[in-house]
Amino acid sequence: MKVSGFTIVRNAVKYNYPVVESIKSILPICDEFIVNVGDSEDETLSLIRSLNSPKVRMIQRRWDMSRRPEVLSIETNQALKECKGDWAFYLQSDEMIHEDDLPKLKKCMTRYWQDASVDALRFRWLHFYGSFWRYRIDAGWYQKQDRIIRNNGKIESCGDAFSFRRVDGKPLRSKASGCFLYHYGWVQPGEVMRQRRRNAESIGFVKLDAQEKEESYSFGDLNRFPAYFGSHPKVMKEYIAGHALSSEDEKTINRKYWFHPAKILKLRFKTSKRIKEKISD
């Protein structure tokens, strides 16, 4: 059994995407890793080259940004076409896997390798928001997604590249991996988030008013969101240590939940509760 990792990236330095850390988080269980590098305005190409791994192979493309959000699935499928493995493991450039889950994922892929009835493996999501110690469970923040797919030419990325589908139109047949996917796209300084949101508007993801375009993004009162008591992937250690808002929030959590069993044991879990209404940003 062979495993291909794949991703797409553009302007990673400009928008502070931890793409190197993302790739490193699953590289140990991949036989190869394909990176579709779009034409960028920064040193993204050099950043990927800095990995200096024989497993990593880049393809360089000029993305057609006139395709709006669809450009992401188009370019994701271009990367997928280059994958040679039996399984294709997709991570976006702000998504990570915890190192403790790698053996479990390898075992899961081995288990279903020759079971043609399984198209994909599904992850539970931790959408961190504002702080590395807070996550979203309210409406609009999906809690499960497929990220490992059978590489048989019958599955493709769709929409804005957050999900996959079978090309024959039949439902994608997934099995739970039992593992978390750590999503860090919303843990950035306010000014970086402002720039990212302006970029998202240019692609067609959001519509911002004049104030949102000019003012630094505010995460508001983080106590609105559940606290995370577990560990993070080791590849994110420097990011976490250098994030001021997370440092302050961790102090608040330590004071408030000093008695919490999950905090004492540092358990990696998320609450089973789901809020159906969207919490105001």
| Element-by-element helix/strand order | EHEHEHEEHEEEEEEHHHHH
Query: First CA to last CA: what distance?
Result: 44 Å
Rounded mean pLDDT score: 96
Which range does the strand content fall in? Answer: 15-25%
Question: How would you portray this structure in words?
Answer:
- There is one protein chain.
- The chain is an alpha/beta fold.
- The protein has a domain at 3-117 and 146-171: Spore Coat Polysaccharide Biosynthesis Protein SpsA, Chain A (Alpha-Beta Complex).
- 28% of the residues lie in helices and 25% in strands.
- It is built from nine helices and eleven strands.
- It is globular.
- It starts with a strand and ends in a 16-residue tail after the last helix.
In short:
The chain is an alpha/beta fold and 281 residues long. The strands form two sheets. Strands 1, 2, 3, 4, 5, 6, 7, 8 and 11 form a nine-stranded mixed β-sheet that branches. The relative contact order is 0.16.
Features:
281 residues; alpha/beta; Spore Coat Polysaccharide Biosynthesis Protein SpsA, Chain A; nine-stranded mixed sheet; two-stranded antiparallel ribbon; 11 strands; 28% helix; globular
Strand and helix map with partners:
Elements: E1 3-9, H1 19-26, E2 32-38, H2 44-49, E3 56-61, H3 70-81, E4 87-90, E5 95-96, H4 102-112, E6 120-129, E7 131-136, E8 144-150, E9 155-158, E10 163-166, E11 174-186, H5 190-203, H6 210-214, H7 237-241, H8 244-256, H9 261-265
